[in-house]
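OP here, attaching both records as promised.
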Amino acid sequence: MIVSVSWKNIWRNKTRSMVVILAVALGLFGTVFMIALMNGLIDQKVDASISNELSNIQIHTPGFLEDKSIQHMMDNAGLLVEKVKKTEGVKAVCRRTKSMGMVSTASSGSGVMVNGIIPQEEKMVTDIHKHTVDGSYFEQNFKVTPSIFIGKKLAEKLNAGVGSKIVMTIQSTSGDITYGLYRVVGIYKTDNAMYDEANVFVENTSLVDLIAVDPDKSSEIAILLENNDLTDKVTSNLKDSFPKLSVLSWKESDPAVFAMISLMDQFSWFMVAIIMIALVFVIVNAMLMAILERTREIGMLMAIGMNKRRVFLMIMMETIFLSITGAIAGILLTVITVALTYQQGINFAAFAEGFESIGYSALVFPTVKTTFYISIGVIVIITAAIASVWPARKALKLQPAAAVREDA
């Protein structure tokens, strides 16, 4: 009975109830959709880091992490790769020879990380080949000059295009400075301009010849997993299998991205807390007004025998019904909006250069986990219950005799 009466009471003043419901709905919609945008931004950054830059897991010698020199390379890399492939959860593996170097043209020069790769293996692990915007990904072979695959940002800096000659300066295993002439076979562009400017790719055979290194040695082994959720488990297994090597997940290789995920999670709940506090004031104000308008009615109910517990429960249920109705409307609006925008994404083209300069895509696909919606629903109910205490206590303080004469 209390539930039925409470539900009917909130519609006695439709205007006030609709204002409260609208405030709750729009407040939740704005907050949750903003969180969805941030989630989409972070998810894309993680996906891009794994698919284009880091892969799920990387293996190096411990010394390589300090100076990324060719002096720190793994022996018998081919054998290591075969062992890694047999690990449960591993989808694909590739190896790389990496060293800092300098590339230059007649126009300019720049320090870069030189990645010596086996193109077909690299395609199985990363998506860098899918970002080709000019030329090709090592499909075209020049007769004499070896090929180099560079980022668009670097190409602009060097004033180089497909077919341009680039001189690479790099240190050999003997410590001597050596030079190599390369021809641009293709240009790629990812959503991370810093990465594009700092990384070039050459075929591993040409690089090991240039720096005089054993072809069976590698600086890095990159591992793609069947599912990103397996990262921690497979990383732990590989650390046990290769105790003398450095096995790092993408979370450890790029702690800034992982820290950003944690920061965004905390910021999301902070935003929810702020909007809930604001909604408490809206709900309390509306319910206090309702109590003042219904002073005589509440007094009569108490006079004919409704005990204080029932009065308290009635006011609480009215508050909860108002909040839940607004929350359902807000969440439904958010679900529909997120679903629609996720299909095509939201393109912040006007800020694309700024986004890419810090490694983020300007095309954002909002996303929210179902568990988050459930959590929001629970929080709304708790908030409504807390907000109902003051108005309910206000109602309990009414004296039945005085309240009945209020409008007389």
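Record two, same layout:
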Amino acid sequence: MLIGTATTVEEAIANEKSGMDLVVVQGSEAGGHRGTFLGAFEDTMIGTISLIPQVVDQVNIPVIAAGGIMDGRGVLSALVLGAEAIQMATAFVTSSESGVNTYHKDAILNSTEDLPVITSVFSGKPARGIHNEFIKKLSTYEKELPKYPTQNSLTQDIRREAAKQGRPEWMSLWCGQNPRSSNQQSAGEMILEIVEEVNGVMRKKW
């Protein structure tokens, strides 16, 4: 089975035409690297709620919703809009099973919706992460920096050493736009809560 990614309707259609079995539709709220492959990422910053139904109406392959979904409310809204599955990332970064650095987890748990920004200073490829000193200092030179994977290689040692020294201001703190909904719990507990929330909302509405 082949799964592609898309940040626009056009990219989703391209996925279907190229033979993908499913497509992950990434809204602009998503943390980490952007999946844009047609055009500039600045032109593909479409929110999940707006993007999902438009893609569903234009492709015949199953759509997986991604971007800013952190709880049962988000899951249910994406399903109602036509998605057949959900992809969640930031929600699980702070889970007890997550292998990310403790400083990364703490940064997300103490972040707000206005702090995650799009930057390419860490890897040379646009990605959403929590604004910190590294991003601030290099943002002026962003357009002059090498593209991925060169920039990613150049900053690798800096990021690794920053993690060792407990200096999150020099780390790539990937995070979506809904950090306030992050929790410290096991992945299993989180999934059970999401299922219960979806079922609870459906019972109230129907």
